[in-house]
Amino acid sequence: MKKCVALVIACAFLMSAVACKKSDASEKESSDTIPASSETVTSSETEETGSSSFETTEPTAPTTTTAPTETTRKGDPNWKPTPLESMSIDTSHKNLDIPLDFVTEKHVVNDPDTDDEVACVTCRYQTFTVNDKGFEELQKTLDEILMGDGERLEKLYDQKVTELKKSLPSTEEPMFENYHNHIYLGRADDQIVSFELSSWDDSYSEKCYNIDSKTGKIISFDDVVKDKDVLCEYIESAIYKEDYPSEYYVNHLEEMIPKIKDGTIDFRFTFDGIIVETFYVSAVNCPDCFNMDYFFSVPGSYIITEDISNTISWDIDGDGKVEMISMGSDSDGRYVNIGGVKTNVRSNSDYRIHLAHTSTGFYMNFGVLCGSDDRCEVIYHINNDKTVEYVTEGCLTDMGNDYDPESMVLETEDQHYNIRFFGIKEPCTYYSFTGDPIEVKPRDTMFGEPYGPYHMKVDVEGKVKNDDGTWKNCTLKTDAKVLVIGYDSSTKELIISDAYSDESKNKTYRIPYDASKGQINGEFAFSVFDGMAYGG
Length: 536
Hints:
Strand content: 25-35%
Radius of gyration: 33 Å
Oligomer: single chain
Shape: globular
Helix content: 10-25%
Largest sheet: 8 strands, antiparallel
Distance between the termini: 92 Å
Number of helices: 8
């Protein structure tokens, strides 16, 4: 009986082996006969499905004999913008004097036992004041926008302060809330004021505003763009001409097109076009897109940026003819091409190029990497023969603005990256966009807000202010709670106060400070003040 069972099992194994062999053979035959075209994605299919502009097919198994397909693309790699052949630039306009103002409210809660700060709510928002006469309607519109946003932030601030007063937070989990906004001013002249308003409250939001300076009326996207289809085609062509289009740009474009078509897209003005969210579009390069009434009337000092096509088109000779400006590379390195005239320049990055006009002519500036992989500006003067000549380089400071080169202030790379704290910059050596030295008063009040509170890590010798205004020598003791409230550049001293919640107890002190090194008695400031970050 056992022999019979063994014989049956052996037969079963034999049948299974034969079946597997036939299956393997049929699969191999099937894979050899599948046509290669069934594994590929054609260009037309890619366009219809709206998938990525580059598609490749990977083998599904090691035995697949189909070769990977070539990449496909939507755009033309040889695409270039077709700018205006001629233009007329009106430079009779002026930049407006519109300084930023700050409104700040702050509520601090201290632990009644330790006097330590356990909660702080801050509301800080920006406003504009137009100092030029004759722009009352513009001021009304600015107030309506900015004070409206400020009132919204103040309301959130008041609500949070009310909550704090009802219950003292645990010292183990201090609470800090900050409601504020920020204005980026991209253009402010007697024709147009254009800016972006970013707000931080319980979430983040941003919105652009474009205002007619004379009437105070909001300028809409439909006022400026006359053919939205042409604008979409221009942006798409510029993106897809690249060998490897930015995935960010590709995805962003798909989100933008519906908003461009219905006119709800956010935009800002430049002097030669608009910025549609992140894309610069020149009205000279894409004249069929725009209502030209909004362009080519500029102040005497202005700056424009290469658009998404990586070119600038502008009349730099004053003869009414448009020259195209771009940057490229050859065996000799990076060069600037102005109307077909190439000049090699120093560049180690792909930052955008800028064209600036001042009272002394046209300049080009672009970023290079310096310091800790940060950006410095290299500036060249454009000669009559369209070659460029090196002028200066340096790091832009936060003085001046981004649209008026004659207001820009630069400093040396060494000065910019020298260790310092509390916003103090000494020694102060500044120069203009055109390389001329500028005398700038050192910051004595540092942003207008105190730094801290900090606890002293060590004893520091200094001076304390008496009630009669005189000063006497003293020692700030370890663990003292203080605020850094100012800097006296004439005596090289930090100005410090106590940080008691009862302000009547606070005294004012002075301690020696080497601003060029960021040191107090040979020690870096973060080694003296506990609670201060390494970078200040």
